Amino acid sequence: MSDTSTPTKPRRKPDREQPHSGTPRASLKQLWPYLFEDKKMMAVIIVISIVGSAFDLAQPILMGLLIQRVEAGEFTSWIVWVLIAVVLVAALLSGLQHFLLQRTGERIVLNARRHLVRKILRLPIAEFDARRTGDLVSRVGSDTTLLRAVLTQGLIEAIGGTLTFVGAVIAMLLLDWVLFLITISCIVVSLVIVVFLARKVATASAAAQEKVGELTASVERAISAMRTLRASVATEREEARVMEDAEGAYRRGLDIAAISAVMVPVSMLALQLSLVAVLGVGGVRVAAGETSIASLISFIMFLFMMIAPLGLMFGAVSAVASALGALGRIEEIRALPDEDADDRSDAPLVTLQGPANVGAQPSAPALEFDAVSFRYPDNVVRAARAKADASGRFDRFVTQTGRAARKAAEELLTIDESDAVESPLVLDDVSFTVPRGHKVALVGPSGAGKSTTLALIERFYDPSSGVIRMGGVDLRAIDRSEMRAQLGYVQQNSPTLAGTIRDNLLLGRPDASDEECVEVLRDVNLGDVLDRSPDGLDAQVGEAGVRLSGGEQQRLAIARTLLAAPPILLMDESTSALDGRNEALIRDALDRAAEGRSMVMIAHRLSTVVDADELVVLDHGRVVGRGTHEELIETTPLYRRLAQHQLLA
Ligand SMILES: Nc1ncnc2c1ncn2[C@@H]1O[C@H](COP(=O)(O)OP(=O)(O)OP(=O)(O)O)[C@@H](O)[C@H]1O
């Protein structure tokens, strides 16, 4: 249950509200569940990899055997056949392993996308207010693909090569412990350097992915406002903005390239140095008679055997580091609570429909606002973020790594009292009731809080204080989905979803028949839309409904709501894009639909709501008048002015 008290103290900016502060790097512990989600398959791949290395190891042994025999003057054909079989099987295993690795890599990406999409579609609405759509899209599309590289860039081969590695290490230790110590110290030094650099890669990768997110967000912004851009002759300016983000992503990519450029030679150099040291020290030891040339040569051969899996491991460390950067951004979203995280699992059902009236008090109004106050939750954060952006602290942060990055993040986290400009109350002590079967209209100037009132009824946000009741029960105590099923919501500028007319209609009631769909379309005067395409209900509406006019989109939204036939209708500006004739038709349809239903309606044009049972006049979030049109003309100066303005008085 959410906090109902009005926040008065400035808050520290919580992590979740900081898309700009640099996403925390994920830990290996967070990566394992993704890699080992299909444990059996991973086991199969690792076994194939180990068997594959055994077949690889067998080849030089067989080859040596063959040469020995040839030298001894005897040609043994079975060794050749076995060698051919071993080479073929090794190739087959390598192909199979490659396929299974790619397949598992794709599954990991799929699972990450599943988790993310599941979470994103359930985030509280406030998260969408605070985040950029393109950035969320980029997390699903781009960040997830980096997880695949962990598997496909050497990790499993390196695990498979462990057998060779361990064998070589034991043999080297037994052969000459002094040379072994020299080798191992070189390797440890290079490992330390590689791990240190890998941490930088992870941070740089997170920053790069963040920039890719910003780029996607900018492209999304430009494409979604294409007509406005063209009409404002702003294409070039917008292009420059997007290019700036593209170059930002490029620069962050270069950061990773620079670190990798150090990482690869450092790891190679360490290995080469160990070889030189072994040769040098080994030579001296041979000269001193402390070891034989034969064991020095064997030692060096084992050193080479050890180097191959080690090289793979170093490559894998870099891939894992990049993945950890991206995983941080994935996990950041996954760690957010679902919208219904605090809901009680045994929350009662409240149904206002039919005689059953489940859960509701029979005589209670459909809806009731009881001293409701509300402020949008993220304004403190917005102020701080704006300040951070303006002062360039964000850029400083993403270009730094390690301790400097942490310090920058801590600076960003701290909000001075003076930064914390608390948002004003958008609704202030609002009380009104919507008796069952009544139509209540919310009127008032722009920004008065009308749409916010409907958003609170839908529980997109919870009140800062006060209670909203449905059928006498606090909304927060009711099962959320069931509660929303009681509501039909036609939003201001109702979005039309890309797809067919049928897709849009069935959103609220998937089981509606074609006949019902056609009937409801005719009810809202959309019959001609059906008639003008041979596809009928299957006609495409275009991206965001571009193939429909504004009025048609609104009527489609109303049709969708009417089809779902909920007991309470919430209408926000639902007739604003309609001409007089259409408006009259829609009002007829709404009046019919409203029979026996409760309705809360917002309309700027008072003509659409003068017949309401009650009008609630809002001004700056406060109720300044309640009553019928005639009563308000007498009692409420603001309403009188609104009415005069619209030539109704
Ligand atoms: N998601 C949001 N985050 C922060 N502030 C918001 C958000 N949505 C609206 N506001 C603010 O809340 C106030 C009330 O907005 P609301 O949309 O409820 O007004 P309205 O009466 O419906 O206006 P209009 O008639 O112009 O649609 C405005 O000052 C607006 O800036």
UniProtKB/TrEMBL annotation:
<feature type="transmembrane region" description="Helical">
    <location>
        <begin position="149"/>
        <end position="171"/>
    </location>
</feature>
<keyword id="KW-0472">Membrane</keyword>
<keyword id="KW-1133">Transmembrane helix</keyword>
<dbReference type="GO" id="GO:0005524">
    <property type="term" value="F:ATP binding"/>
</dbReference>
<feature type="transmembrane region" description="Helical">
    <location>
        <begin position="78"/>
        <end position="101"/>
    </location>
</feature>
<dbReference type="InterPro" id="IPR027417">
    <property type="entry name" value="P-loop_NTPase"/>
</dbReference>
<dbReference type="InterPro" id="IPR017871">
    <property type="entry name" value="ABC_transporter-like_CS"/>
</dbReference>
<dbReference type="InterPro" id="IPR003439">
    <property type="entry name" value="ABC_transporter-like_ATP-bd"/>
</dbReference>
<feature type="transmembrane region" description="Helical">
    <location>
        <begin position="41"/>
        <end position="66"/>
    </location>
</feature>
<dbReference type="InterPro" id="IPR036640">
    <property type="entry name" value="ABC1_TM_sf"/>
</dbReference>
<feature type="transmembrane region" description="Helical">
    <location>
        <begin position="256"/>
        <end position="281"/>
    </location>
</feature>
<keyword id="KW-0547">Nucleotide-binding</keyword>
<keyword id="KW-0812">Transmembrane</keyword>
<feature type="region of interest" description="Disordered">
    <location>
        <begin position="1"/>
        <end position="25"/>
    </location>
</feature>
<feature type="transmembrane region" description="Helical">
    <location>
        <begin position="177"/>
        <end position="198"/>
    </location>
</feature>
<feature type="transmembrane region" description="Helical">
    <location>
        <begin position="293"/>
        <end position="324"/>
    </location>
</feature>
<keyword id="KW-0067">ATP-binding</keyword>
<dbReference type="InterPro" id="IPR003593">
    <property type="entry name" value="AAA+_ATPase"/>
</dbReference>
<dbReference type="Pfam" id="PF00005">
    <property type="entry name" value="ABC_tran"/>
</dbReference>
<protein>
    <submittedName>
        <fullName>ABC transporter ATP-binding protein</fullName>
    </submittedName>
</protein>
<feature type="domain" description="ABC transmembrane type-1">
    <location>
        <begin position="43"/>
        <end position="322"/>
    </location>
</feature>
<dbReference type="Pfam" id="PF00664">
    <property type="entry name" value="ABC_membrane"/>
</dbReference>
<dbReference type="InterPro" id="IPR011527">
    <property type="entry name" value="ABC1_TM_dom"/>
</dbReference>
<feature type="domain" description="ABC transporter">
    <location>
        <begin position="412"/>
        <end position="645"/>
    </location>
</feature>
<dbReference type="InterPro" id="IPR039421">
    <property type="entry name" value="Type_1_exporter"/>
</dbReference>
